[in-house]
Amino acid sequence: MASVLQRARDFTTSAGVPLSTAVSSFNPSDVGSGLFSDVSGRAWLATGLVVAGSLLVLEQTVYRMKKKHLPGASWTIPVIGKFADSLNPTLEGYKKQWDSGALSAVSVFNIFIVIASSNEYARKIFNSPMFAEPCLVASAKQVLLKENWVFLTGKVHSDYRRVLNQLFTRKALGMYLVHQDAISRKYFAEWLQNASSEHRESMLTMRNLNMEASLRVFCGRHIPTEAAYEISDKYWLITKALELVNFPLAIPGTKVWNAIQARKAAMIYLTDAARKSKIAMAAGQEPECLIDEWVKE
């Protein structure tokens, strides 16, 4: 035995390998540690995949349970749902959803949305504030604020609407029509002057007419012309944020965030218009717009 050990020492020495290295280079614990590390990494990966898969299955199950018999996609795209549709919305897509049934369902970022497209269901929703409330779209309350009158229900809504009815008497409507007639004639003259045989998009052109008529009917001369143009631009940002399907979070750069900033800017002008109206009515001037009638009441 001694001669065998001596020959081993002679071999390692002649090979230029230190004896201590030759003897201790193999450590069984190193093998166990490596195997454990490899198994542990695979276990965490498998666990993560199982959890993610379970959440996706749960998401689809919840969607189908809520949807039940309602028209709409049988399955929804994981996590984002119909959000991709908002990146390139089309009237054809909206009409397809609208025509799918009196009630239909979509899901956007796990927000389950039921869409009512018939007068019957619309009346039921409006008359059942304890069970449902109109929200237009998921982002509407963020953009318009939850205390906006369009979200009021029950007695508060009825009382508010009763006050609004006083603003639409024959006398008041006759006053509003003066603004509408003058603005419509101005735009009709511009359209005839710029008429062309070539096809043109007309939506924004019509919108400009509606926007100016609306602002003048509501606020009269209490809003300067340049402010009216800016409000029109801001309202367009709000319109884009109120698309049927949209990214629901107000992150800088998103349509919802841009709309919130637009609402804040427009409110500065509208608040100032209300202030000017109060001053005019207190001075005994005759009402010339809806806000004047409101202040006078």
Automatic annotation (TrEMBL):
Annotated keywords: Iron, Metal-binding, Oxidoreductase
Q: Which cofactor does it need?
A: heme
Any one GO biological process: sterol metabolic process
InterPro entries named among the record's database cross-references: Cyt_P450_sf
What's an example of a GO molecular-function annotation for this chain? heme binding
Q: Which family does it belong to?
A: Belongs to the cytochrome P450 family.
Q: What is this protein called?
A: Uncharacterized protein
